[in-house]
Task: inverse folding
C-alpha cells in the first residue's frame, strides 16, 4: 500500500483505463449503443482469464450486471490475494467443466511505474476432479495440460496522453508447450489482443489488433474471428449529446462448413475458407436524457453524484480505498451541522435519492467496402471483389444501418433503512434495422452473402438473421460464420432489470433480455381487439431463448457505495462470477 501511495500521479497512469458506468445513470448505458453497433461492446465474462469478452457488433449493449466493473480482473485478484489472503478466486464456466480457480502467479514492474504486467493462471478444478472420479490417477489429472490456462496482460503509459495494452491468452497449456517447443499450434491457436490509445483534444485515436478473437451473441453462440484490425477516431462525450466514430477496418472471418459447401470448396470437411474484407465505417449518435421526477427536498447537485450520464475512469476511483472513502464521507458527516442530513446515512450515497428518468439514443452506421476476397485454408485467393466507383451515386456506402435505444429507469426508497428501502426497475428497448442501398444485390454479394429477392417483410429491407440461416444453409448454433453478415441483420431486443434491498446493504438483482420481432400493424379489424393487434405487431422471437442473469451485491463498508461486492450467475450462458464493482 505504501508503494501505491508513493506512486502519485504515475500510479494511476500505469493502469489501463476502464470506463466506469454508475448504476443509476441510464444514459451512460443507453449511450453505449455507438460502441455496441460499431465494433461490439465489452462485457464481463469468466470464460477467459481477463473476465472480459466482446459481443458481436449490432448486438444490444450488455445487461447491467455484466457491464465491466471498472477494475481489471488482475487488479481484483491481487487485492483479494494480498489483503484478504485468498489463495485463489473461484468462478463458474460451464464450457470449462464447471468451477475454475484463478490466481495471479507473477507480476512484472510495479503499479507506480509506467509499465507493468501480470501473469494469471487458471485451474479447471471441477474438470480435474471429474477426471479423478472417472478413474484417472490424481497425478495424471493434475498434470493434464488441458486443465490449465494462462494469460499474460501488460499495460503501459508512454505519456500522459498515450497508453498501450496487450494480452496473450493460452486456452490450455498444450498451446504454451507447443509454442515453447517451436511446434505448430494447428487448430488451437493462441489469442492475442493489443491496442494503442492516443488522447487528443475532445477525441481519442485508437489502433487495435485482435487475433483469434471470440465474440459472443445473444443466442449463446461463440463466433471465432481469426483477425480483426482497425484504426479509428472517436469523439469524446459532449454536452450536446452528439457523438461519432469513424475509421478503417480489416476483418478476416471464417466460413462455416455449410458456407464452404455452398461455395464448392469443401472436399475436406475440416477445410475452412476465410473472407477478408477491408472497409470504411462511420457511426454517429445523438442521445438525450430527461429527469421526470425527483424529490425536491432530497435533490443534490450533479457534481456530488458524478454528473448525469458521466463515465469515470478507474484512475479516479481506484487509487485507494481511503481516497474513495474521503470523497464520500463529507456528505454524511454530522459535524457539518447540516439540518437536512438524515440520522441514518444511506448505504450508498450514490443511490440515496428516488428518481424517474427516461433517455434515448438514435444513430446511423454506414460502411464502404473497399476490398473483399475469399481465401482458402492455404492462404490462396479464391475470389476477390473491389469497389467499382461510379456504379451509382449511393453505391460507395454499401451498408447502411439505423438503430435506436430508449429506456426508463426508476428508483424508490433511500437505501437507508434496514429492510426493503430500495427498489429499482429499468426497461430498455434496442432496435437496429439495415437500410437497403441502391444496389442491394451487389452489396450483399460483396460481403460473401447471396443476393436475396422477393423480400416480403414490411419492415425488413433485408431478411433477418434467422431467415437467412434457414434459407441459405447456415445451421443455428454453429461456430464461425461471416462476421460482416451481422451488419445486415435486423435486431430488436427488450431488456429489463430489477433490484431490491433485502436487509442492510444486501440487494438481490435480476436482469433479463429477449429478442422480439416487430411487424407493421395490420389494418384495424372490428373483430380484433387492441391487445390482439398489439400481439401481432410485437412478438417474441421463436429462434432464440431469453437471456437471464441473477445476482446479489453488498455495498462495501466505509466506502459510501463507491464499491460493492457482486455475485452473479447466468443460466443462459452457464457462467457465474464474483467481483468488486465500482459505483
Result:
Amino acid at each position: 500500500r505504501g508503494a501505491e501511495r508513493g506512486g502519485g500521479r504515475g500510479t494511476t497512469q500505469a493502469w489501463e483505463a476502464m470506463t466506469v458506468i454508475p448504476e443509476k445513470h441510464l444514459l451512460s448505458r443507453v449511450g453505449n449503443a455507438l460502441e455496441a453497433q460499431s465494433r461490439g461492446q465489452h462485457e464481463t465474462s469468466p470464460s477467459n482469464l481477463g473476465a472480459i469478452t466482446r459481443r458481436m457488433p449490432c448486438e444490444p449493449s450488455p445487461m447491467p450486471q455484466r457491464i465491466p466493473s471498472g477494475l481489471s480482473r488482475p487488479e481484483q485478484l491481487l487485492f483479494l490475494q494480498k489483503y484478504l489472503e485468498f489463495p485463489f478466486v473461484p468462478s463458474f464456466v460451464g464450457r470449462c467443466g464447471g468451477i475454475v480457480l484463478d490466481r495471479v502467479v507473477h507480476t512484472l514492474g510495479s503499479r507506480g511505474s509506467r509499465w507493468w504486467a501480470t501473469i494469471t493462471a487458471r485451474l479447471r478444478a471441477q474438470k480435474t476432479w471429474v477426471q479423478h472420479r472417472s478413474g484417472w490417477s490424481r497425478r495424471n489429472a493434475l498434470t493434464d495440460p488441458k486443465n490449465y490456462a494462462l494469460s499474460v496482460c501488460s499495460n503501459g503509459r508512454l505519456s500522459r496522453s498515450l497508453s498501450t495494452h496487450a494480452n496473450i491468452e493460452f486456452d490450455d497449456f498444450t498451446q504454451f508447450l507447443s509454442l515453447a517447443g517451436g511446434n505448430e499450434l494447428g487448430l488451437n491457436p493462441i489469442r492475442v489482443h493489443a491496442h494503442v490509445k492516443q488522447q487528443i483534444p475532445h477525441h481519442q485515436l485508437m489502433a487495435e489488433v485482435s487475433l483469434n478473437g471470440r465474440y459472443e451473441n445473444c443466442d449463446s453462440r461463440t463466433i471465432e474471428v481469426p483477425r480483426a484490425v482497425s484504426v479509428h477516431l472517436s469523439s469524446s462525450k459532449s454536452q450536446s449529446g452528439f457523438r461519432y466514430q469513424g475509421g478503417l477496418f480489416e476483418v478476416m472471418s471464417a466460413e462455416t462448413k455449410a458456407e464452404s459447401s455452398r461455395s464448392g470448396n469443401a472436399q475436406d470437411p475440416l477445410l475452412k475458407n476465410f473472407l477478408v474484407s477491408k472497409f470504411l465505417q462511420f457511426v454517429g449518435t445523438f442521445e438525450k436524457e430527461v429527469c421526470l421526477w425527483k424529490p425536491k427536498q432530497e435533490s443534490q447537485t450533479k457534481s456530488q453524484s458524478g454528473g448525469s450520464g458521466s463515465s469515470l475512469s478507474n484512475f479516479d476511483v481506484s487509487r485507494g480505498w481511503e481516497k474513495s472513502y474521503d470523497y464520500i464521507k463529507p456528505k454524511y458527516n454530522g459535524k457539518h451541522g447540516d439540518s437536512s442530513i438524515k440520522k441514518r446515512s444511506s448505504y450508498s450515497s450514490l443511490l440515496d435519492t428516488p428518481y424517474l428518468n427516461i433517455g434515448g439514443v438514435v444513430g446511423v452506421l454506414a460502411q464502404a467496402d473497399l476490398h473483399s476476397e475469399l481465401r482458402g485454408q492455404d492462404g490462396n485467393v479464391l475470389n476477390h471483389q473491389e469497389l467499382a466507383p461510379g456504379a451509382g451515386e449511393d453505391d460507395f456506402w454499401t451498408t447502411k444501418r439505423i438503430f435506436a435505444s430508449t429506456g426508463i429507469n426508476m428508483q424508490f426508497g433511500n437505501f437507508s433503512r434496514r429492510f426493503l428501502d430500495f427498489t429499482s426497475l429499468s426497461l430498455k428497448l434496442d432496435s437496429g434495422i439495415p437500410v437497403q442501398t441502391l444496389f442491394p444485390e451487389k452489396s450483399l454479394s460483396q460481403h460473401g452473402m447471396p443476393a436475396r429477392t422477393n423480400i416480403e417483410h414490411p419492415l425488413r429491407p433485408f431478411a433477418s438473421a434467422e431467415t437467412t440461416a434457414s434459407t441459405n444453409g447456415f445451421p443455428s448454433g454453429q461456430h464461425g460464420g461471416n462476421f460482416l453478415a451481422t451488419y445486415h441483420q435486423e435486431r430488436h431486443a427488450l431488456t429489463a432489470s430489477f433490484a431490491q434491498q433485502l436487509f442492510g446493504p444486501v440487494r438481490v438483482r435480476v436482469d433479463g433480455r429477449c429478442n422480439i420481432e416487430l411487424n407493421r400493424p395490420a389494418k384495424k379489424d372490428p373483430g380484433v381487439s387492441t391487445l390482439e393487434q398489439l400481439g401481432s405487431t410485437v412478438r417474441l422471437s421463436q429462434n432464440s431463448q431469453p437471456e437471464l442473469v441473477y445476482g446479489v451485491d453488498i455495498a462495501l463498508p466505509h466506502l459510501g457505495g463507491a464499491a460493492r461486492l457482486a455475485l452473479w450467475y447466468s443460466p443462459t450462458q452457464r457462467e457465474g462470477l464474483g467481483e468488486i464493482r465500482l459505483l
